[in-house]
Structure prediction request, 790 residues.
Amino acid sequence: MKHPPYFLRPNKVVDRLMLIEAIKHLDKLYDDPTEYTYYGLGGPYLEDFRLIYDFCPGIKMVSIENNKDTIERQKFHFPCSIIRLKHMSFESFLARYSSNDKKSIFWLDYIDLEYDRFAEFESLLSRVSAGSMVKITLCAKPDNYFEDPEEFSKKFEAIMPDPWINPPRGEERFARLLQDMLRIVTQRALPAAMANIFQPVSSFRYSDGTPMLTLTGIICLRKNRIRTREAFHDWQFANLNWAKPRKIDVPILSTKERLYLQRKLPCRRDAGKKLLKRLGYLIDKDKKKTVAKLKQYATFHRYSPYFVRAIP
Amino acid sequence: MKKKKNRKIAFEHEHVDASPVKSFFVHMLTRDIELEFAIFDLLDNCIDGILRSRIRNIAKKKPYHGFKAEINFKKDSFSIADNCGGIPWALHNYAFRMGRPKKHPEDTRGMVGVYGIGMKRAIFKMGKHCLISTQNGNQCYEVEITPKWISDEEKWSIPVRAAGKKMEEDGTTIVIGELHDGIRKRFSENPELLKSELNRMIARYYAFIIEKGFEVVINGDTVKPRPTRLIFQKTEKGKKPAIQPYIFKTKTADGVEIFLAVGFIRRIPSQDEIENEQEETKYSSLDAGWTVICNDRAVLYCDRSELTGWGEARVPRYHTQFIAISGIVEFKANDASKLPMTTTKRGIDASSILYLQIKNKMREGMRIFTDYTNKWKGKAAESKKQIECGKPYLFKDIKRETESLKFIKLTRSVPKGYQYKPTLPYPKQLMPNRRRISFVRHADDVKIVAEFLLGDVNADASEVGERCFDTILKEAKQ
Prediction:
């Protein structure tokens, strides 16, 4: 089975670290982080599992994988001994899953965009216990529907804000539409009459070749919603009101460039322009794009990965 | 022991209290209807207003053009405002009384209000306070329903006052406040979901009337209609076979006009599509089934149950393989009580004799298309070519286009009427030396072979299977 080099995707790396940041904020809400179990679709390299073990070692972990060969590869990449592997499809897993009143962290890390993905998300939300965190990632590539825009509404009309409007062609607006659809799904899964609610905590869009949308939220008791929001209030990357997804688009900079720029960071205003002034040359097509890229770097520099040659 | 005395009661002088209880209307009747359908009751009133005011031009292509209803819901209120003519003072007893008085002004053609309960039930469904402002020519008045009035079991009259200001156009505005807890929660915590659901339902249930020009706006956004389109292949005179709908039309002695059409809305599904549909949660079945329209409004949408004849009298039960079949029955009557619909106007009165008669015709028509689907099973690609010869037509266009077809007059059957039975293309008999091969393999393995043989991992499984066989056959023959 062929897999893309997930670990070489700079924006995905940042997104993974955003999940770690969000998990860290759970400390403000709940006393015992070891109560959580992380469930992920980690792929062959189990990168998300490695990060969770590094930063939140108390969390139990379960990987769900349907492909036998990928499971073998996962075993080879085990970052620690506390991961349980489940050889089954996520759909089958979901059918057997019971929260047993324990808190969970789920990452539904999909690479495509199908109605079933929303249905699985919906099913999960109604079954996790209060205090759980769920992150979903979807392919947000609008050009898949350029030729036949009606195909989109045929597939997704049940969860579209306006089922009869063609999907937007731009990546930003398309990602926003998907987020609005996820919002409707959360309301379907946890309608007003139910005790729990889905409180979003962050949403990002990024592209390492394919545009993606990723949304993270907490399933909390409605009466605890304000408390939940307050726990994330001071987080720079929080999206607590379903605002448009924040873009992650970190530039490829050499280590030398990064160390040179880092001495100016953090800076509150005009970060892009200030870094360009310090650098003295363009790193993208024009000044505007360079400023935007450097602003991205200023925002995410602490999470931006270093790719270096290593001697094994 | 003491003996109980049997006191004699003079029953002939006693009366039992059989008067209505207000709380029955306020708390019980509202349980019979979903919020969405309660809102539809208010929309129906808007449309009845247009018909009553006789200001539309029926001869026009879009007789409802210029009329609109604006629905707005916020966390603490609901409102619907229309420009559909308002409620004439002469009808105030009908509009505001619980139920319909016997001495009621004669109905206007095409209305759907029968029982005199829709508007009130919708109001009580949502909240405890309501202000209804209406203007019909010079008559401009307001009626306020308060929580105090609702809780007072004795008081049945509601004070009327002259409206504070004149509206730009004749119409009615209903504002509901003091929302019930469940409704307030839906408006405040699930507004996106409610808006999306209302949009989708109105687009379908009111598709026919929106197509005719009526405009519905929900929280600022106009709803676009989603009508059913049946495939119709125009042919030169007498040329058969062709993909066309089955049609039956009639008019009953008591003035109900009926037009029924059933046919294909798309190509029949391939075996892969049928299997995928069963495994996954897809929505391609959404447009299949029967839609029943009473006076321009859908009372049943894409039903696939026994209520519309599926699984009865040799018609198979609905199954994914029939996703291409859809039918529409339209009932029209001046007197809405003759229409086979329930009090909520979103259901069929299954015991209606008229409906049962028409259901026979629905099943008769349906059988033609289930039979075609079964005959072409496994040959979806060939059938696709035939279906693509036709074009999708709106119901109103089907009515127009089929006028020139050769209908047979049925005088001995019940109901009497005119029928058009299409001649659909049928496959030639399978040659006796042909065999079907069918087998199941792991999806990942199918993808590997698909890429290897066809260079396309997403190729249809049936295509992969056929190519495998053809490749080996070629080798075996060498």
